[in-house]
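Case study 2.
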Amino acid sequence: MLATLEELGVTSVVDLGCGQGELVGELLARPRFARVGAMDVSSMALTIAARKLKLERMPELKRARLHLFQGSLTYTDKRLAGYDAAVLMEVVEHVDPPRLEALERVVFGHARPSHVLVTTPNVEYNVRYEFLTGMRHPDHRFEWTRAEFARWAAGVAARYGYRFAVKPVGDDDPEVGPPTQMGVFTRDQGF
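Prediction:
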């Protein structure tokens, strides 16, 4: 994720569904990311993130780069606008399928960052987890095959004026693909 953001040359990133702040901590450790947003629907996750990030002891200049806030990806929120990139790392599979359209509208239609990075499990890889029965996490509402993810990404890109590429995350098993898949969306300038 970090390497891709750096390759894209972005300087501001919002982590949508930031959880306990693992990615946020990594972003703040790199001065190139001058503005870092971190949103989650869970106030408990944000409390844990603040503790892990040591907000109360964070140097003032680093703290000034961070905006930690509660919100939902299915409701328009002006705080999501103005970032070079949005990250949804292992987030979409936690959204009920009928709510995906609202998420798309909020992220790709309203916030409209230049880049959106989405990672999600590749369900085809699950056969490689010996003791896994069902989905990888009890809160997952679905897990996509590579073809399903590519179809969703193509639809979102066409509807909202983005190009996309799908990249493997982890070892790319010749039979079932990688454990995780990443969609890298780049907004068409004329759209």
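Helices lie at 2-8, 22-28, 43-53, 60-64, 100-111, 146-160.
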